[in-house]
Design a protein that fits this description.
The chain is mainly β. The protein has three helices and 19 strands. The strands form three sheets. Strands 1, 2, 3, 4, 5, 6, 7, 11, 12, 16, 17, 18 and 19 form a 13-stranded mixed sheet that branches. It has a three-stranded mixed sheet with strand order 8-10-9. α1 packs antiparallel against α2.
């Protein structure tokens, strides 16, 4: 493990070697975090200050130091340093008003982030940065839209007075998309969205397979729950009026019935057009958008299957080599049961006695 303490401009201050423990957590659709424990007389304390960073060589994520807690008692003499990954800087800006004009929801993210973070020259005088107070020098956006994403209607969202991070995280979670703020080689920051690669095709050259029988994962736990699940969505446009659409949505060709039916109510009041103003075209648009939202909500409300375990270090496949955050992998529970999972979290634990790695997988809803 190679870990450096850097300043807010990403200049190296120290090489972290002697510590009690380090837990480093990376996540797909939200920020990661870390916890570092060092002796109270550690040589690194001058550099372990809030707003400085930790950079792990074998990681795409950079952590920002936020809290430094020193404890000295009869039994404990240590300093606990905690913080979150660079994605958390999106919390430092708030959205003044909704910009519900882009063609897609993912474009909405970039339209909101641009004036909040990206230095933008004034149209009247290019030498003047019109958003100089809010922009971060060197901050850029990779506005590539991940392919294969079914997007919700823009009108469903209301982010006014929320943080930029709250907006990005909600949209990413709704659309099963990852977010990242990278520190580039020139020390600038670059925001991007991404979708993990599908590496769960058995027998394919790039397939990634985990199985206890392959001795590449151990001590795993598996949770499957029906709590909070639904298979029928009843769309709520607000106060009832017979002139408004009545929309009920389910997945698949056949409507669930009897004991198998589990209903959920989905609020789509943002789509509402008052009955006295509605036209046939408005009626159809409201219906189509409500159906789309209902389908997306139902996919998110399917039976949850989560699996986590401990990687057998030294055995393939290797994280950040054969597979990455957000990728879809295959897990063999037995000869006859296999499941496709997305990598949504990866935890690394380092102590003076060794290291361990713990991925979290969430079953993919097809």
């Amino acid at each position: 493990m190679e870990c450096y303490i850097t300043d807010k401009n990403h200049n190296k201050l120290d090489y972290l070697q002697n510590f009690n423990s380090l837990i480093w957590t990376e996540r797909y659709s939200s920020f990661g975090d870390f916890e570092l424990l060092v002796p109270i007389d550690s040589q690194y304390l001058p550099a372990l200050k809030p707003d400085n960073h930790l950079e792990l060589v074998d990681s795409d994520y950079v952590m920002i130091i936020e809290d430094v807690l020193a404890t000295e008692s009869k039994d404990v003499r240590q300093v606990k340093v905690t913080g979150r990954s660079m994605e958390s800087i999106l919390e430092r800006r708030t959205i003044d008003k909704n910009l519900n004009m882009p063609p897609t929801v993912l474009n909405l993210i970039f339209m909101h982030l641009r004036p909040l973070f990206v230095p933008t020259p004034s149209a009247a005088d290019p030498s003047v940065i019109f958003n100089e107070g809010r922009a971060i020098p060197g901050f850029t956006l990779d506005e590539t839209i991940p392919s294969g994403v079914i997007e919700r209607p823009v009108a469903q969202y209301d982010f006014s007075k929320k943080t930029a991070y709250a907006m990005v995280e909600e949209i990413c979670r709704d659309h099963d998309v990852g977010l990242r703020v990278r520190v580039m080689p020139d020390k600038t920051l670059r925001f991007s969205l991404f979708k993990g690669a599908d590496k769960a095709t058995a027998g394919a050259a790039n397939s990634v397979v985990f199985a206890p029988s392959m001795q590449n994962i151990k001590n795993y736990s598996y949770l499957e729950t029906s709590i909070g699940t639904a298979n029928v969505a009843v769309m709520n446009f607000g106060e009832y009026d017979a002139r408004l659409p009545y929309v009920v949505v389910w997945l698949g060709p056949n409507e669930p019935k009897g004991m198998n039916r589990r209903e959920m109510v989905v609020d789509v009041t943002n789509l509402r057009i008052e009955p006295e103003d509605i036209t046939p075209i408005d009626y159809q648009i409201m219906t189509d958008n409500a159906r789309l939202i209902g389908q997306i909500e139902l996919r998110a409300a399917q039976r949850k299957i989560v699996l986590d375990g401990e990687i057998e270090l030294g055995m393939p496949p290797h994280y950040r080599h054969q597979y990455h955050m957000g990728d879809i992998v295959l897990f063999y529970h037995s000869k006859n049961i296999q499941t496709r999972y997305r990598v949504t979290e990866y935890i690394r634990s380092y102590t003076d006695t060794g290291s361990s790695e713990y991925p979290t997988f969430e079953a993919v809803v097809e």
